[in-house]
Design a protein that fits this description.
alpha/beta, Aspartate Aminotransferase, domain 1, Aspartate Aminotransferase, domain 2, seven-stranded mixed beta sheet, four-stranded antiparallel beta sheet, 11 helices, 13 strands
Length: 374
């Protein structure tokens, strides 16, 4: 399948080389139209509450399809930080376990939220990486019979290192721990099946590889687990319909929807629905195959240009996110943007993150220009 026939869906590609899907994916015409449709419905009709709720439910269904879940196992919130904060609010009263395990390659919001939990402040354990990777033995050592929750990123946001979630799940479940997966850098370009991978909880937002805009995060919580959890971060949208307007008798919704809070960002949901539809139509397996070829080329060509790669040197345990060490990365990012090449700086690296609409020529151009600058 020639994925690049879809390049015409993305107007930015007519003027720029967009390689920043790890930060913000390119916006497709159907996504842009959905945003305009929401706007026009308010201008023309004054209110669109019923239609917006139906769109949210449809988007929930598409995301469930993307990750191999059931629709009632998916909640819609505004950000992954909101999702994780809500999850943590349910865990403070566990009768036996207090341990929380996270990694030094997690996105900072994970640490910020965990350190804010006074109940767990003396029970935090960090899994350390070695040469930008985490050996499975580290999870064997750090996850104990006291661990309540183990938090991992599917993919390292700095260098593209990809973890074997299924093997980690086997380890942490063997110790009796729950597993939370941050899929912000994987959902949309790597196949995910939460049942096969034995994930208990997963969260991701839509503005990166899911090709949407800020304002929407999807949360998956395994059905059997969701029934046992009662979030303290809640709101009227997380109640059973019969209790939504009952001030004194709240009844949490069945399933993961009990984690929803207030009115969501409907305009972002409209965008998310169309973005998910595009991704599912193209096919995540097709996207992954295409990106593996681009990554193989990019790794080899970058080394030929004398660039210093961060993260794994092969495609076996990494994604298409390719990071190269540079000094003053934000300045280099700005210089590349002046040349109409959109990449993303983090710490001391420039991240080149293609999607299915990118070509080998895009990668070569970006690496040529980057090597000239550094």
């Amino acid at each position: 399948m020639n994925l690049n026939c879809n390049r015409s869906l993305f107007p930015i590609l007519s003027s720029h080389t967009h390689l920043a899907s790890c930060s913000q994916g390119a916006i497709a015409i159907p996504v842009s139209k959905a945003i305009e449709d929401y706007h026009q419905s308010l201008l023309n009709d004054g209110t669109n509450w019923g239609a917006a709720l139906k769109k949210a439910d449809a988007a929930r269904g598409l995301f469930a399809q993307l990750i191999g879940a059931e629709k009632d196992e998916v909640a819609i919130l505004c950000s992954v930080s909101d999702v994780f904060s809500s999850i943590m609010s349910t865990l403070t009263d566990h009768p036996k376990r207090k341990g929380l395990v996270f990694t030094d390659i997690d996105f900072p919001t994970v640490g910020h939220i965990l350190y804010a939990q006074k109940t767990f402040k003396d029970h935090l354990s960090i899994v350390r990486s070695f040469n930008n990777e985490i050996p499975l033995e580290q999870y064997e050592k750090k996850v104990s019979n006291d661990t309540l929750l183990t938090c991992i990123p599917h993919v390292n946001y700095c260098n593209g290192y990809k973890q074997d979630v299924k093997k980690i799940a086997d380890i942490v479940h063997g110790k009796g721990s729950l597993l939370f997966v941050d899929a912000y850098q994987s959902a949309g370009h790597i196949p995910i099946n939460v049942k096969e991978m034995r994930i208990d909880m997963l969260a991701t937002g839509t503005r990166k590889y899911l090709l949407g805009i800020p304002g929407v995060a999807f949360s998956y919580i395994r059905k059997e687990l969701a029934k046992e959890l009662n979030p303290r971060v809640t709101g009227w949208m997380g109640q059973e319909e019969s209790a939504a307007f009952d001030l004194l008798n709240p009844i949490p919704a069945v399933g993961t929807r009990r984690f929803e809070t207030g009115t969501p960002a409907f305009i972002s949901i409209y965008a998310a629905y169309e973005a998910l539809r595009v991704l599912l139509e193209v096919g995540i397996n097709n996207i992954e195959s295409h990106l593996k070829n681009l990554t193989q080329f990019g790794l080899q060509y970058g080394l030929e240009k004398g660039l210093s790669l961060a993260g794994p040197l092969t495609i076996e345990n990494r994604t298409s996110l390719m990071s190269f060490h540079v000094e003053n990365a934000p300045l280099v990012e700005a210089k590349l943007r002046e040349r109409k090449i959109i990449v993303s700086a983090r710490k001391n690296v420039i991240r080149i993150a293609p999607h299915f609409y990118n070509t080998q020529d895009d990668i070569q151009l970006a690496l040529d220009e980057l090597s000239q600058i550094v």
